[in-house]
């Protein structure tokens, strides 16, 4: 996410995500609090790759709401949506080595570790390993 996040950033994000839904290439949803659905605390998406029927899962939650199970609950729901509504066979996700909490979310929703791409991302003036996880439809629906 850009910082600071401007009104122009928000307009661009909405335009991009709306077009992706129309094109059926990505599905992005707001993450809101159960106790106040008007309070958006993050977003979650599936970027779909056809014809292989796979998608990359991505999410973010505002730091203020970390460690409440919000990302895990949203990730579980969107994985079910991907398998049940988008006819996906595989959903994968990745996280940088400096964010192991994101990997814990992936593990909690049943994703399996598949490997590391070493020094794959450059952030904060340093190269970081990127860890990949995946879940198959057959892992859930046997």
How do the strands and helices of this protein lay out in sequence?
Layout lengths: L6 H17 L2 E8 L2 E14 L4 E8 L8 H16 L4 E7 L3 H9 L3 E12 L2 E11 H4 L2
Parallel strand pairs: 3-4
Antiparallel strand pairs: 1-2, 2-3, 4-6, 5-6
- SSE string: HEEEHEHEEH
- The average pLDDT is 95
Q: Unreliable stretches, pLDDT < 50, 5 or more residues?
A: none
Number of strands: 6
Secondary-structure-based class equals alpha+beta
Largest sheet: 6 strands, mixed
Q: State the distance separating the first and last CA atoms.
A: 37 Å
The largest beta-sheet arranges its strands as 1-2-3-4-6-5
Gross morphology: globular
* Percent in strands: 35-45%
Helix content: 25-40%
* Radius of gyration, in angstroms, nearest whole number: 15 Å
Number of helices: 4
Structure overview:
- The protein has 142 residues and is α+β, with helices and mostly antiparallel strands.
- 32% of the residues lie in helices and 42% in strands.
- A 6-stranded mixed beta sheet has the order 1-2-3-4-6-5.
- β3 (54-61), α2 (70-85) and β4 form a beta-alpha-beta unit.
- The model has no long low-confidence stretch (mean pLDDT 95).
């Amino acid at each position: 996410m850009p910082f600071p996040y401007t009104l122009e950033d928000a307009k661009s994000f909405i335009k991009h995500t709306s077009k992706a839904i129309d094109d059926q290439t990505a599905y992005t949803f707001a993450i809101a609090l159960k106790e106040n659905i008007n309070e958006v605390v993050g977003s979650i998406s599936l970027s779909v790759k056809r014809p292989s029927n796979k998608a990359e899962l991505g999410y973010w939650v505002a730091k203020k709401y970390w460690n409440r199970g919000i990302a895990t609950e949203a990730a579980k729901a969107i994985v079910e949506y991907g398998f049940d509504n988008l006819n996906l066979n595989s959903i994968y996700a990745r996280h940088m080595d400096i964010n192991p909490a994101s990997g814990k979310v992936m593990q909690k929703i049943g994703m399996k570790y598949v490997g590391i791409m070493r020094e794959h991302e450059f952030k904060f003036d340093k190269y970081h390993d990127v860890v990949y996880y995946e879940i198959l439809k057959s892992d859930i629906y046997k």
